[in-house]
Design brief:
The protein is α+β, with helices and mostly antiparallel strands and 344 residues long. The chain contains 7 helices and 19 strands.
């Protein structure tokens, strides 16, 4: 157990590799109760969120969600999050634990009178259940006659005398669901999922496996690959930015980046040889010249070699190019790879 954003969180229950493989081959369950949950509601909620977030909330029908960013005026990333439209005028924002209070304060500062904003994080928990056997476990939990929601959709379902919200989303590259419930139902749901998941090889999974799984897919981690000094264009995540929207915070800065090109870009790399795994803040070199810095790194359980992501000078970004990662004073060769690193 380690302190994480004001919570005590498990790094692993058994082993990172075992939990990682459970998600890739069967099914794993993560406690995501530390994630923040904000509710925006009111007649002006959708239009207002469109001025605060990069993606286009006008495209959200009731029961759907989208990945998006909350930016500062310079286009820097305050947070990456998923926004769900859970009612005609009601939205659920699932945000990063370490940014919950900051996100709430930033949103509240710009909130118009016709929007109500609540932080329900302390009263609600959540789990992510991920892996190729998710459909079997879903039916074991909710009934054979209940359909899995489509990708990026969210539905409310009855469960053992209470109601839970089930979204077809995740952070692992596998099929999966994220389930949100009242905090006092958390233990009940967690235990039920572990019990019903036994025939499908379920394992509880910690932060370690979450990191190796997301990194194989090149999903960014807020605070490492994303920060208020970086913008979504440089991070290669422009797909989640709708620049046709006239007036969202940070748009002008992103337009400039789009026109002039990002000075640094977030690339994926793999180590060429066996050796110590890359880690955040390790320097990146090419032909003896320092060209950037690693922001994430690990030993990939699926690929069995070191992998990572790094911001490097845009002029040096070329798929297949060799770079060197400095690890404890020694340089180790690596290759810039196309994302994602893990392909099924």
């Amino acid at each position: 157990m380690v302190p994480f954003a004001g919570w005590l969180m498990p790094v692993q229950y058994t082993s990172i590799v075992e939990e990682h493989q459970a998600v890739r081959n069967n099914v794993g369950i993560f406690d995501i109760s530390h994630m923040g949950q904000l509710i925006a509601e009111g007649s002006g909620a959708r239009a207002w969120l469109n001025t605060m977030l990069t993606n286009n909330t006008d495209k959200l029908e009731v029961g759907t969600g989208q990945y998006t960013f909350l930016l500062n005026e310079r286009g820097g990333i305050i947070d990456d999050l998923i926004v769900y439209r859970i009612g005609e005028r009601k939205f659920l924002l699932v945000v990063n634990a370490s940014r919950t209070d900051e996100d709430f304060a930033w949103l509240d500062q710009y909130r118009p009178k016709d929007v109500d904003l609540k932080n329900r994080s302390a009263d609600f928990g959540g789990v992510a259940i991920q892996g190729p056997r998710i459909a079997e476990l879903f039916h074991a939990l909710f009934g054979d006659d209940v359909d899995l929601p489509p990708r990026n959709h969210i539905v409310d379902l009855p469960f053992d005398g209470t109601e839970v919200s089930v979204a077809r989303t995740g952070y692992t590259g596998e099929d999966g669901i994220e389930v949100f419930f009242r905090a006092n139902d958390a233990t009940k749901f967690w235990n039920a999922a572990l019990e019903k998941g036994k025939p499908f090889g379920i394992k509880p999974c910690g932060l370690g496996a979450r990191d190796t799984l997301r990194l194989e897919m090149c999903y960014p981690l807020n605070g490492s690959d994303l920060s208020p000094k970086r913008n979504p264009i440089g991070a290669g995540l422009g797909f989640f930015v709708d620049l046709t929207k006239r007036n969202f915070i940070g748009r002008d800065a992103l337009l400039k980046t789009k026109e002039n090109g990002a000075p640094e870009k977030l690339v994926a790399f793999r180590m060429k040889e066996k050796g110590p795994p890359p880690r955040p803040h390790y320097a990146v070199f090419q032909n003896g010249e320092r060209i950037g810095e690693a922001t994430s790194g690990t030993l990939s359980p699926s690929l069995n070699y070191g992998i990572g992501m790094a911001y490097i000078d845009a002029a040096h970004v070329k798929i297949g190019a060799q770079i060197d990662i400095e690890i404890r004073g020694k340089k180790f060769p690596a290759i810039i790879e196309k994302k994602p690193l893990y392909k099924k």
